Amino acid sequence: MATALRVAAVDCGTNSIRLLISELGPDGTPTEISRRNTIVRLGQGVDETGRLNPEAIERTRRALATYVDEMLRHKVARVRMVATSATRDASNREDFFAMTRELLGRVTPGAKAEVISGDEEAALSFAGATADIDPARGPFCVIDLGGGSTEFATPQSAISTQMGCVRLTERFMRSDPPTELELISARVFTRERLTEARSVVDFASIGTFVGCAGTFTTLSALTQGLDAYDPVCIHMSEIAFDDVRRTTATLRAQTSEQRAANPVILAGRADVIAAGSVIVEEIMDAVEQVSDQRSFVISEKDILDGIVAGLYSSSGS
């Protein structure tokens, strides 16, 4: 008789490190065992220095050690960890990889983080984010807005653009709240990156735009008026562009301290979500120029779910 297979996916981005432990039962049905998110700001200062900050590596090490302990408790058989924008850009990334090799080797000998391309990142995010959406709502474009980069993916095309909530905050939006001049500079930069995206992805052909990762999910929670961050209410929610704009305008007028006081905004996101809101607003403007789409569907599933599906597939399950 077949036994259940437990696997783990870890995604380490510019702002956060996240874990998904999943079990594939004998009948082929996956069950989520654990999903974690820890903001570690691995990409702190990378845009300016080109190096990973040793303190950021240590924050990430502590979070990953906790995740590894959880994997061992749940008897995980296979693990894959991907590292995205921050490590792609860092000259001292081997310090980071040595740390991951030491910790992940406790789960699977030889395992370590791997840097994936922006194209693979986009494809994995697409597979995860669209898993629960009615195919009739396609064609889909999945937008994965991270700390250092934003990926746009369809089944036919994908592009990773070098804009993210941490990158824009560190480069342009250093005042708290941001000044009008800082916002203008951030918008100009974002529009240039969106021109790159639109040269690859045809926004006019999209039936549903799917937003995933922390900026989008937090904007959904705020727009819905939730009292706390609730993944069940956020997953597959649909938020209208005009409602999102009201939310983003409020966020940018607040200080980081005021944002942090809102229980919907998780620790470590308050100082970068204003920059994330600029990116979202510019995406909405770009969509409205060529399409009659006026809403995002928000997915709590993302690259982690795509990684897990790949682990099951490669195991022959």
Automatic annotation (TrEMBL):
Domain called Ppx/GppA phosphatase N-terminal: residue spans: 28-291
Molecular function GO labels: pyrophosphatase activity
Residue ranges of coiled coil: none
InterPro entries in the cross-refs: ATPase_NBD, GppA/Ppx_hydrolase, Ppx_GppA_N
Gene3D superfamilies attached to this UniProt entry: 3.30.420.40, Exopolyphosphatase. Domain 2
Pfam families given in the database record: Ppx-GppA
PANTHER family, per the entry: EXOPOLYPHOSPHATASE, EXOPOLYPHOSPHATASE 2
Protein name per the record: Exopolyphosphatase / guanosine-5'-triphosphate,3'-diphosphate pyrophosphatase
